[in-house]
Amino acid sequence: MAFKLKSLPLPYSLHSSTRQNPNFTLSNHRLPRRFSAPSLPLGISLSSTASASRFHRTALVTARAVRSDEIANEGEEDKDEELSRQGVKKELANKGIWSQMKDIVMFTGPATGLWICAPLMSLIDTAVIGQRSSIELAALGPATVVCDYMSYVFMFLSIATSNMVATALAKQDKEEVQHYISVLLFVGLSCGIAMLLFTRLFGAAIITAFIGPKNAHVVPAASSYVKIRGLASPALLVGWVAQSASLGMKDSWGPLKALAAASFINISGCIILCIYLGYGIVGAAWATMVSQVIAACMMIHTLNMKGYNALAFSIPSGKELLTIFGLAAPVFMTMMSKVAFYSLLIYFATSMGTHTMAAHQVMVQTYSMCTVWGEPLSQTAQSFMPELIYGVNRSLSKARLLLRSLVIIGVILGLLLGIVGTSVPWLFPCIFSPDRMVTQEMHKVLIPYFIALAVTPPTISLEGTLLAGRDLRFISLSMVGCFCVGSLVLWALSSRFGLLGCWFSLAIFQWARFSMALQRLLSPNSVLYSEDTDRYELLKLKTA
């Protein structure tokens, strides 16, 4: 089965549009605003009129009269539908922005846990290992780069799964949904096996090249961590596909329960293996690996409970592979630019000594834990903006007003996260490491840490709006540009100011993203001001 591209106003999000409810029918004109659906397409009444015209030229007078009555009735029905549509639009326009945002945030609330679980597990590993050894804490930085950041390369599987499943659900075609799931499960399993082999064969060499000869004593601990974590790579990517399929079906509670259970297992295993049994970084690796496998099994079970076979694998055709990779290419470029820049941050920090590496690992993990709290702003934009930009209730003024509210909330949230996130390593550094030299290095970077963290939530809201507006070309190109310039700034500042220069480079990188996204959205040609929607037309997958 091959795929064909066709336009459809669909948000790029892990949560598909609520119009893609499998229980949706064209008669549901009175759905709540979050689940509003377009009326019958205008083409139906036009084709009926065209058929009536041909019938007029050949039929009897009595038949013409009957047909005319039918056309009149159809015209009245179309008029009623138009009035109903206008009523819904008026209701949407009258509802306050804060009420809209509250509804959407409540709808996407359970998914917040999905963003928190992964950095929370990494932060727990950091805290537990830091209590035992500064060397192992330093080794955790490059080890997580190889494990976590390499897995982010395959984040396109999540994007492709949610979009393809949501598209099939919009057509109420369960067989097509099953086919998409089977194809993407096979792709995820294949990529996971490749990642497993890569970490087993080249993990130690990558760690050695990444750390350098000055910190060779860190290599054994980091290599052991990478090899153990790599065993879960196939289960990790298969679990991502199953999770995204559930999210495409508007189920965020199932994946949340799976990740909550995995987090509990990881915390318990890490404490028992690292602290009580004394396995250190190796114990943390085993705890994380087991928790990821269990999470994948629970994701698969959740999908099976919905009536789909999550263990059925289907080999994709060449066209299907091109479609999958083409769909997620802009998002792939964006993710790769971010991953590459954060990897460079850790790379430059590894050349500054064991204590500096350990301090940088603590600050990076706390930073990641704080930034995920801004993700609901991006989800809000991607869930609600498309209706205001492209939907039947199109209102660019409302979209601009919503963006302003999102940015205001992002600024407030950024300041709160900056204060809280800075206070923890400043006032309670012993949570992560009792080593005073590590604490001193952490305190050196608190100012750029706050500057970078404060601007992240509003940046996420702006980029979420660009995603909702289908301005994917700009997002990918701007992120690549930020990476190139940011890398040069990072090299220059880190060579002169050490770890402090690294974190000021991150602050500049984040503020550059914020400035470029804001300037794009405020320009006359942006999706919030331009009436020409064809330039930002989104692609829809359809079986040929």
TrEMBL record:
Top-level lineage group: Eukaryota
Transmembrane region(s): 104-129, 149-170, 182-211, 256-279, 285-303, 401-426, 446-467, 474-491
Keyword entries, A-Z: Membrane, Transmembrane, Transmembrane helix
Membrane topology term: Multi-pass membrane protein
InterPro entries on file: DinF-like, MATE_fam
Subcellular localization, as worded in the UniProt entry: Membrane
One function term, GO molecular function aspect: antiporter activity
One Pfam family from the record: MatE
GO cellular component, as recorded: membrane
Family the UniProt entry places it in: Belongs to the multi antimicrobial extrusion (MATE) (TC 2.A.66.1) family.
Protein's name in the database: Protein DETOXIFICATION
Species of origin: Phaseolus angularis
